[in-house]
Amino acid sequence: MPDLLLELGSEEIPAGFLAKALKDLRDLARKRLSEAGLSPGEVKGAATPRRLAIWVGGLAARTEDVKEEKVGPRAAAAFKDGKPTVAAERFAASLGLTVEQLETREVKKGKQTAEYLVGTREVAGRSASEILAEEIPAWIEGLSFKKSMRWVAGSRLRFTRPLRRITALLDGAPIATSFNGIASGTQIEGHRFLHPEPLPLTSSDWGAYLALLREHHVIADPAERRALIVKGLAEHLEPAQLEARGKLIDEVTNLVEWPQVDVGEFPPRFLELPDVVIVDAMVDHQRYFPIRKDGELLPRFAFVANRPLDPVIREGNQRVLGARLEDALFFFRLDQKRPLNERVDDLDEVVFMQELGSYKARIERIDALALAVAEGIGLLNSADSGPTTGREKTRAFGPQDKLGMRIRQAARLARTDLTTEVVQEFPGLQGQIGAIYARLQDEPEEVAVAIGEAYLPRGEGDVLPQSPIGTCLSLADKLDTVVCAFATGRGPTGSKDPFMVRRNVLGILRILGERELDCGYAGLVRNAVAGLPEELRSDTLAPEVLDYMRGRLEVLGKDAGFDIQHVRAALPTGRDPSNVHDFWIRLRALKELAQDARFATLCTLVERCRNITEKNGPTVDPEDVDTSRLEHPAERALHEAIEACRPNVSALIENRDYAEAGAAYVGALGEVVHTFFEPAPTGVFVMDEDPRLRTNRLALLKQVHGLLARGFVDLAEVPRS
Amino acid sequence: MALTFQEIILKLHAYWSAQGCLVVFPYDTEKGAGTLNPHTFLRALGPEPWRAAYVEPSRRPNDGRYGDNPFRLQHYYQYQCVIKPAPANAQALYEGSLQALGIDTRQHDLRYVEDDWEQATFGCAGLGWEVWLDGMEVSQFTYFQQVGGIEVDPVAFEITYGLERLTMFAQKVDSVFDITWAPGVTYGQVHHETERQGSRYCFEEANVDMFQQRFEEDAQEVERLLEGDDPLVYGAYDHLLKCSHSFNLLQARGAISVAQRQVYIAQIRGLAQRVAQAYVDHRERLGHPLGLEVTHA
User: Fold this and answer.
1) In 3-state terms, what secondary structure has residue A431?
2) Three-class SS state of A56
């Protein structure tokens, strides 16, 4: 069974593109070879910045000969006066046959059967190398990169960087093909600088290929390179630090062909800089690994070279880092000359959104909103936070006033770090730098913490703000962004989300839920809308935002592993459906309740209650029950059961003992509702001719549905319809 | 003995000259980078082949640090090489230039790290790398894809060496001002005072009203020169460069708000596209005197 070895030699492929490109190439090769009838066996792959390589084993040497049958024109149209028509002649010619070689046969087309001309021709199998010569260029063209380029004059073909070599062997024999002017060959290259000479390949053996590269300072398997790097780093980094640098290790793995880990130092005087600045300079700018001991940053760093180590290389890297840190120190000291509180006016220059002016204009909105949030989550009483007027001024200055004041201080300073040199140099550090500077400038600790937390969470899985002020500020910041985006028509659409509304909403929902804040977001959104300039407010704005947020909450519930029907049952209900904390409690209670064997049947019956009443009695008042006209024993039993359990169920719901409320409900009503719906005479015929009886019954069913739906969950949503 | 600043320039001239490049000269109008010298910006357009190398004094008013920062300057030097069409051995040619400077690529860790270059103000974009020499970015290597908003074909490649960085690497010094320019003369002696005064001018003294007015006048001049059947392309481009420099100075003076900034940039880009198109048309009218490199497949 022949095997294929294919290497695409490219100028340096961006590290971030490599893993996907290799996977795509393997998948594409497997798929297309199967389609071509070469029944590929195992597919292996390797990739470095300078090459993508695959090996395919167990290929068929050639595809099988097949007889191909084609149906032509109807017999009726094929001959005229006993002579073949033009249509018949053309059909025969298209198959390389004469009309005499065709046969006439009954063929079923759709529902009709008729006589047709039918031709059969032999299609000879093709050799694997013939097919591969056509396939390989198509695979290369089929690879897609996030960014690609043209490089050959007059050609529109693209690759992520200029492709320079195609090496293709089938069972050791060259496959003659070409792409974008590059003819295939049988040579590969080793390490760019240590072995610039071409290396001839004589076999398509995968092991021999990898070994030849290894002899020439190339480790082609990314997993092996990664393992080597991890092993090298493990000598210098504590396990937790190593763990935290997974993404950087992935990137560095694909920046090198021959990884070697070394350690350099920088002058300890740079430790004057905040840790985050030093780490950012190392990680983001130089792809170095910071080294800590017991949490303390050391004036050392680990780096990965692409060749055997040499002191010259270490010195070079040390000098570069020193230069970067020198630069950062210059900016850091410059920043200290103007404290954050003098920079508030500078924010006037920083545009937030065109229609909404600058970040400075935003401070007032955030300020008011953060106070509203503080009230909403119960940190502040409404009387204590507003602008104090008249008699209130004489009140004693209490802790509530202090909290309100701190929130305002933090809101004022929160984005001032956007104007600092260090943040302009290291944009990823906004917020963190604000917090650090606030501390250095003797702002209260809780204000400093809040400035840093206002940005949290920065993305999925990131930590949440923990301090009360930081929490208020973060929620206010995100609410304002979301509402402003919707108000100016910049809400998320398909793939576009210029103000990261999705991420901000997720942050809001996560903070409210995970921090267990007992506050609905609906009220907060309305507050945020009220804070907008008048021309941007509209009646449809809040509903639009709330609708979007509910949609995200649904996704969040599903992603947390809850049954989607349960999520839908909990989403529109509760005392405040927008109370995320309560939503999770209700959802967990519902999951618990669903363990009860009687639960599923009851849900179906509740669904029936809802459907009947929605259809036949949308205007019926659930309380409109005339007890004197409860005639059927089953309806009397239902009425009594409802009355008996209602106080208990309501009290349990009030108390948030949802699971217990559900259990009491199921226990009290499971049986009687079932009997109610039995066929008459055991059960009750709801749609009686007597309107009074009918109203009674519809009202009872509404009560059954409403008892849990009002404060807990809508059981009618649980059955899969 | 490590090479002096001027020896590095001379060696690069000798090397690229041997590779068939025309050694040309800095352009006599202020600009932010060597790419904006018409020897690159205009010559990269259209089908005619081109090979050139030159030193370009470059001005970035915002990067001034009063001579206090060892790495940042508001006036510095780039070495620029541009070859169209980009040959298949472009990387090897570049590596050869490092060898010519005595940097043995077998002794160092040389890396091509993804960095796609963009000059949004002039409608330029390309794909390429920053080149790392033992961790230090010493050059920018770009295959042009778009110049002045026009898709280029054939594709030119451009190498920009940060001459100060490269020399600091070669001389192993930690401050740009400690670079030996020629035996006995440092970069600091030549440029420390120009940096100090230049920074003061850019950040404190440049006359905002005057540069705002100049920007408008130069922009009008570009438009005027592009009118008619035989537009003065080169003159228009000169005034476009002046617009760009005025804009950079106004920015350094803090005279441009973020919102205004977008308006300025859009205006410059619009003019750059018109100049680029006018150049392409002009060369076509001349019948492409340097020849046609493209063989359309």
Assistant:
1) coil
2) strand
Look over chain B and give the mean of its residue pLDDT values, rounded to a whole number: 93
Among the residue ranges A406-410, B214-218, B274-278, B291-295, the one predicted with the least confidence is: B291-295
Assess B288–A contact: CB distance below 8 Å, yes or no.
no
Interface check B127 vs A, CB under 8 A: yes
Question: β-strand B22-23 against B50-59: which pairing, if any?
Answer: parallel
d(CA B218, CA B239): 5
Average pLDDT, chain A: 90
Task: With CB atoms and an 8 Å threshold, state whether B143 touches A313.
Answer: no
Which site among B127, B157, B294 would you substitute to test the A interface, given the most A Cβ atoms closer than 10 Å to its Cβ? Answer: B127
Give the residue from chain B lying closest to A256, CA to CA.
Answer: B111
SS3 B171: helix
| CA diameter of chain A | 117
Look up the pTM and report it.
0.79
pLDDT classification of A350: cutoffs 50, 70, 90:
low
> Each residue of A518-539: b (16+ CB within 10 Å) or e?
ebbbbbbbbbbbebbeeebeee
Enter the tokens of residue A395: 């009140």
Helix axis angle for A468-487 and A399-413, nearest 10°, is 50
Confidence at residue A382, expressed as pLDDT on a 0 to 100 scale = 53
Nearest to B294 by CA among B45, B35, B19, B16: B45
DSSP reduced 3-state for B126: strand
In whole angstroms, what is the distance from residue A456 CA to residue A377 CA?
Answer: 18
CA-CA distance, A113 to A115, in Å (whole number)?
7
Report the C-alpha gap between B96 and B91 in whole angstroms.
9
Q: How far is B92 from chain A (nearest CA, A)?
A: 10
| Rounded CA separation A277/A425 (Å) | 10
H or E stretch at B90: helix B90-100
ipTM of the complex: 0.94
Cβ contacts (< 8 Å) between A327 and chain B: which residues? 69, 71-72
Indicate whether A505 pLDDT > 90: yes
